Amino acid sequence: MLSKINNSFLRFLEIALALHGFLHIFEFGVALYEEAYLTAAIAAFGAIIMLLSALFLEKGHHHHNLKHHKEKNQHNH
Q1: Which of 22, 31, 67, 77 has the fewest beta carbons under 10 Å from its own?
Q2: Which three-class secondary structure string do you get for the chain?
């Protein structure tokens, strides 16, 4: 049960990070429109970090499905 809650929470974080990244993209566009180039650069950096974090978090929390982790878990039980 705790594992299911943990996976659900991680999935929520992935989605929240991705949405936050998209908000930074919108912020980047508005900053360019307003000719606020320093703000645009900071928003672009934030967007990249948020989207990459969401991507790597999504790929990273599934690592326990790999064969060597399954074998290790079988030996521990």
Answers
A1: 77
A2: CHHHHHHHHHHHHHHHHHHHHHHHHHHHHHHHHCCCHHHHHHHHHHHHHHHHHHHHHHHHCCHHHCHHHHHHHHHHC
